[in-house]
Amino acid sequence: MSIAVIRNMDTQGRIIIPADIRKETGIRSGSTLEIATDGTTIRIRKCTPRNTGSKELWDFLEPLYKNIRCGLAISSTDCILASKGCYLPEGAQITEELRSLIQEGREMFSQSGLCPPVPDCSRKVAALFPVTLALASKKAALLLIPEPGRCLSGAECNCTRLIANMITRKCKPNE
């Protein structure tokens, strides 16, 4: 069932999501919501809780995000393993274009964006840093996914490169 209502925003930019919509979508106090724009349309989407199986990867993303405030994700050649600062659900299948870039296994940068990380994503990967993960047992990458129109600084890329190297050292497969 589709529910549509009209609500007024208060002076602090808040709106109330009606109880019927919260109940239908499973939104509760403390739920994480993604708010995105598409022209004059505003979309609100409930984010699924992250998989605790990737906690070690998420622990690398958390401090990096606090410093550079840019969307981040770690992806294998199959799917998103962890993300922070942008809604990319763990286990989401990546685009073929991103899969090819990760398989190349080299650093890549583009201020205009390399490609979307997952199908139907409005944001593009701006930088890709290869990582080696035991749990992926194949190539993977740390991705920088800024808001549209935001340019990355050299310091942000260098900081991300450092974290990518730390992830590889910490999560290297046993040889």
UniProtKB/TrEMBL annotation:
GO molecular function (one): DNA binding
Gene3D superfamilies according to UniProt: 2.10.260.10
PROSITE patterns associated with the record: SPOVT_ABRB
Keywords, in A-Z order: DNA-binding
UniProt key word Nucleotide-binding: no
Span of domain SpoVT-AbrB: 4-49
Domain of life the protein comes from: Bacteria
UniProt cross-references to Pfam families, sorted A to Z: MazE_antitoxin (PF04014)
Key word DNA-binding present: yes
NCBIfam families: lp_hng_hel_AbrB
Name the record gives this protein: SpoVT-AbrB domain-containing protein
Organism: Anaerostipes butyraticus
